[in-house]
Amino acid sequence: MSSIVLRSRTISNNFSSKSISQRGLCSGVVSSSSDPSKGTITSSQSILSDQSTPPPPAPKVAPQVSGGKIWSFVKYGLIAGVTGTTGYAGYLSYKCSCEEVDHKAKALRAAASYAPSEDASAIDKYGGLLYSAAMTVPAKALESYLDLRRLVEEHLLEYTEPTSDKLLPDLHPLEQHVFTLVLDLNETLLYTDWKRERGWRTFKRPGVDAFLEHLAKFYEIVVYSDQMNMYVDPVCERLDTNHCIRYRLSRGATKYQDGKHYRDLSKLNRDPTKILYM
């Protein structure tokens, strides 16, 4: 009887220990699964931390060769060359005439057309070719300068020189003995005055009509003025009602030099010994 009781206690104790162990196991499982997010995050983080590798180092950029210095050297060299060429061209324009520059350019032309002799060595021929090529550019530049200068001077001559080398037509054969009387318009035949109240006014000199009528019998009368044609023609029309003045010359027939207009009597197509200027 006592053995039966002892066996039952042993079974009950074993059963209670099994139940306690099962409860502990269940509670451990529950506690471990009670916060799944933490476990997941922790495990994922550990996996990532274990599997991640450090980023590759940035590739080393090879140092680029800076072309700024080369470009600046070329730029300043070109500026210096253009400035020197312009200054030399200005010096030639101021100091030398076009014919003198053309005479000096003959040496450059000869150098540009240099050709070594047939019996020269290969080195001499090569050196001659290099010399000729080096002189070709300055020679071409000088030729262009001469062409441009001639063109500019031709245009300037239209304003600085009289319009013709013969400002007056030829005299009739029967009038070769007649003298030519050249008169200025302003301050000779006319008088111009200015006042604040009325502005500019032009007056005839006293006795001008009688003067012209009398001298027209003995001289060829020419009015030579430095005023514009649009001023000379209408004034002469009102001044010379009897047509005693044979020819009228205005500013276009003068020579412009140093800011002034000069009357070039050598262009009148008359004998200089028979010209009277008043």
UniProtKB/TrEMBL annotation:
SUPFAM superfamilies: HAD-like (SSF56784). Keywords: Membrane, Mitochondrion, Mitochondrion inner membrane, Protein transport, Transit peptide, Translocation, Transmembrane, Transmembrane helix, Transport. It is found in: Mitochondrion inner membrane. InterPro entries: FCP1_dom, HAD-like_sf, HAD_sf, TIM50. Belongs to the TIM50 family. SMART domains: CPDc. Its main location: mitochondrion. GO terms for cellular component: TIM23 mitochondrial import inner membrane translocase complex. It holds the Pfam family NIF. The lineage of its organism: Eukaryota, Viridiplantae, Streptophyta, Embryophyta, Tracheophyta. This is Mitochondrial import inner membrane translocase subunit TIM50. The keyword Transmembrane helix applies. Residues 29-62 are annotated as: Disordered. It comes from Gossypium raimondii. The keyword DNA damage does not apply.
